[in-house]
């Protein structure tokens, strides 16, 4: 388990960009943390670290944004509205699991029973009283 503390979004993004160098084909990242925790910010850093130049936006309305052209393809999911197995299937989640890309999943709490055994859990939470401080815990269970 790794715990880091960041003081602003830039630090979160920079950490994520470095962390991206450790990622392997087929890795699954499951974020735990509510609205504004920093999940999309972290994913922006992952994309940067993978050498993806496209801007990473929240996949809230699309459910899935795909970023190609980096060291690994990045599949950025938002499971906020995915509340049953059928809607999970329709996102293509199980097909992407078989791919050689990296999955980064916001609101993974909603699909926790379907996450693979080697999932990397990244928890983001407020850290103390400063609005811009975050505690980030990385757990490869
Ligand atoms: P989520 O995807 O979890 O809803 P976002 O990454 O979209 O979160 O938004 C996080 C918000 O919190 C942004 O407005 C960002 O500027 C702000 N923020 C403040 N401090 C941090 C920090 N240390 N790390 C990440 N985001 C932070
Ligand atoms: Mg988000």
* Shape category: globular
Gyration radius, in Å: 14 Å
- Total strands: 7
Which residues form runs of ≥5 with pLDDT under 50? none
Strand arrangement in the largest pleated sheet = 1-7-6-2-5-4-3
Oligomer: single chain
Summarize model confidence as the mean pLDDT. 96
Number of helical elements = 4
Give the CA-CA distance, first to last residue.
Answer: 8 Å
Helix content: 10-25%
Binned strand content = 25-35%
Largest sheet: 7 strands, mixed
Q: Which sequence of SSEs, written as H and E, runs from N to C? A: EHEHEEHHEEE
Structural class: alpha/beta
What does this entry look like structurally?
- With 141 residues, this protein is an alpha/beta fold.
- It has helices spanning 9-19, 39-49, 85-90, 93-97, and strands spanning 2-6, 28-32, 64-67, 74-78, 102-106, 120-126, 134-140.
- A hairpin with a 6-residue loop joins strand 3 (64-67) and strand 4 (74-78).
- The chain is globular, with a radius of gyration of 14 Å.
- The termini are close together.
- The structure holds adenosine-5'-diphosphate and magnesium ion.
- Residues 39-40, 58, 106 line the site of magnesium ion.
Descriptive tags:
141 residues; alpha/beta; seven-stranded mixed β-sheet; 4 helices; 7 strands; globular; binds adenosine-5'-diphosphate; binds magnesium ion
Secondary structure elements and pairings:
Blueprint: E1 2-6, H1 9-19, E2 28-32, H2 39-49, E3 64-67, E4 74-78, H3 85-90, H4 93-97, E5 102-106, E6 120-126, E7 134-140
Parallel strand pairs: 2-5, 2-6, 4-5
Antiparallel strand pairs: 1-7, 3-4, 6-7
Helix pairs in contact: 1-2
Bound molecules: adenosine-5'-diphosphate and magnesium ion.
């Amino acid at each position: 388990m790794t715990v880091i503390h960041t003081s602003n979004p830039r630090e979160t993004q920079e950490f994520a960009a470095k962390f991206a160098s450790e990622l392997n084909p087929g890795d699954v990242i499951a974020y735990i943390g509510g609205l504004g925790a920093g999940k999309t910010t972290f994913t922006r850093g992952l994309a940067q670290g993978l050498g993806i130049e496209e801007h990473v936006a929240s996949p809230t309305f699309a459910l899935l944004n795909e970023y190609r052209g980096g060291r690994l393809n990045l599949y950025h999911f938002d499971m906020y509205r995915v509340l049953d197995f059928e809607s999970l299937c329709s996102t293509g989640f199980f097909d992407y699991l078989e791919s050689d890309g990296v999955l980064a999943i916001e609101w993974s709490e909603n699909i926790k029973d379907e996450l693979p055994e080697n999932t990397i859990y990244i928890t983001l939470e407020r850290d103390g009283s400063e609005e811009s401080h975050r505690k980030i815990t990385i757990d490869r269970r």
